[in-house]
Amino acid sequence: MEMNTHMLTRKGSFRSSRKDLKVLLHFFIPYALLLVGFLSVGYYAYERTSQLIESQTKETAFTVMEQTKDILDRRFEEIETIAEQVAGGTKARSFQYVEQPFAGTNPVRILELHKDLFDYPLFNHFILDYFVVYPDSEMIVSPNAMYKLRQFYDLKFRYEGQSYETWVGALADRYRSKAFLQGQIVTYEGKQHSVVTYLRSFGTKEHPALVLFLIDNTQIQNMLRRLSSGDGGFAFIQDEHGQTISQSGVVGDTSWSEALSDGFSEADIDGRRMLVTRSTSDYNGWTYVSAQPEAAVLEKVQYLRRLLSTILALGLLAGMAAALLFAYRNSRPLWMLLRTLPTAGRTAGSETAAPARNAWDEIRSSVTNLVHRNGDLEEKLELQMPLLRSGFYDRLLRGYYASNQDIAVAMEHARVSWEGEFHAVGLLEISGYDGGYNEEMLRELDIRKLGVRDVLAKSYGRTIAAHDLSENQIALLMNGDADSAAAFMDKLRRILGELRERFANELHVAVHVSVGGCCRRLTDISRSFEEARLLMQRESWSSERAIVFQDDASPAMPTYFYPPDVELRLVNLVASGNVTETDALLEQIRDNNLVRQSLPAAVGRILLGELSGTLLKCIGEAGSGLDPHREEIERALLAVETGKPPKAAFDEIAGAFLSICRSQNDRKKSHNLQLKDDLIRYIEENYHRTDLSLGKLAEHTQTSEAYISYFFKEQTGVNFSDYLERLRMTHARTLLEGSDAPVNEIAVAVGYYSLNTFSRAFKRANGLSATEYRKSRKPQDGSGF
């Protein structure tokens, strides 16, 4: 309130003061011009993005149209090929001259013809059934049965609203080389079906015969529905004569489509603005047309335009207000700018990037590009590998990793492999360089270090890893197997002695090496490095004493072990809730300071004071979650001032550290449980979405994809993709057993965009195809031919 009153008072004085007005304009105009410039660029990007999304939407619609046309063309071509094979059969052609099918040996010939017909509908679900019709003998034969025409029409198949006489007359009316009849409702085996009829005549005009195929129009309509939205859209197929073969949606007069060319067009149909996609088949000259309301097709584009327009308008208003505020508060313009620009950048980036990631073509293009560029990325990664290894070694030596698991993950990324059980760190220093480096000396040092690293890599590449520390120092990370830690250190003495001789003889380089203590845990490597560093600082080096280990170090002045790297690692471990590693590090500090040596009282108080300061840092990061441990922490902080023995005071401080660490661990576990339940619930609610991915989970939880992948595998024991596939397969089996829905509809219902993808996944998960699974779970039909 006081600040607001102060601002209002200054505004009043500003209006009354011409000098203050000039100062305000001086600061306001640059901000305003900069804002207008940014908004102009944003508006240009918004226009270009809208045009690009609209263009990609149209291209996607035409691509789906071309795919549907190609699939149906292949299906129709397959049916025509089958019809030619059936009509060209010797037995089928010879039977056309039979007038009395049940006289003499003709019944035997009928059975032979019946057996000669292959049961194509069993393997081709696009074909409902097919028959060979002989109008002269009033016989009709199929792979499953044979009928008289009248019996067939009454019991097996008939068109709705068409008499037997009309049907028979239409069959014998004229000779058809091949003809498709438009989809209509028929009664087949007592059930109603929508079929497209294909007729293929053979024989002669005096003795006609024909092959009649019943094509499942439902499958054609399902494919046409992909081309049209449910909100008033429709699609249809017309043959070369303008006859509608099949359609999806409400289709009225189609004469308007004749004037359109292939591709994407706009048209007014029945008073509505429609976007029309048209394609003509090269195979049979048929026309495929889909029409969708413009508002439905371009819904994302319109939404994007409205959203970005709103953002730009709000950005302009907010920017002008911010410009006034920045001008008024000229003492802190940089702080306000940094506070505002990242927020604006994140908002704009998230709103403009989301639609492109959800477009199928964009995803497919991105994945294809990644596959083709994989080799190039591998080469670039290999070039960056020395930097990754250097960063890993630096963090490891300074104790930045909280656990062995973190180190193992970092080693995998840096492609570092250590197979030995024991580890130790040595510090190699090239003699003769004590500071005051010039350009020539630095060049000479670089050459000598390259020689040293080359000898190490060729002779002990799997045992010793080298990492540059300074102009004349190299850290040696050594690992190996031995019967004991002492045997391992003896082995290192021999190796380092040989290397020192080689450096002197081959490279003419004199070195001295300090080696820290042996350890088995990777998290203790930083301790070994710190020990080697302290040895390097306090030793008096000579040619006789060129390699010194921690165990044979010279006596030093009483001091305590608590370097900055150890303090930083302790703070990180407590903050991460790693109780085991925190306890081990505290025990290491206790062992180095209170067990291995007897510190003077003054030095001990300094150590305890530093530990108290570290404890205060941990309290500040832990926040308000430490109320149950408040008394224990206060008692630990007072232990330094109460004159307690160092060991007792250290134990109380260590207990306070562990209490904070346990609180952090409990908070972390609670958060992980809530996050796991949220992820499982989100997957079960959205498994049917084709775009469900790690990216969606990351967006839902506002975390990264890499973290979600690692967290999900850690909490559930399975990968996200395996879990999602199992869930989808469970629902798919339920739908296959409990419904008669087509397999392609079930595939879409459980989240698969492609029937082929669903089929491969189902067979991989269940050992048989979806169709075979449905048949195995339903009772078999006991009726015969």
Automatic annotation (TrEMBL):
GO molecular function (one): DNA-binding transcription factor activity
Ranges where the HTH araC/xylS-type domain occurs: 677-776
Transmembrane segments annotated in the record for this chain: 21-46, 307-328
Top-rank taxon: Bacteria
Keyword terms of this UniProt record: DNA-binding, Membrane, Transcription, Transcription regulation, Transmembrane, Transmembrane helix
Pfam families hit by this protein: GGDEF_2, HTH_18
Entry keyword annotation includes DNA-binding: yes
Protein name, per record: AraC family transcriptional regulator
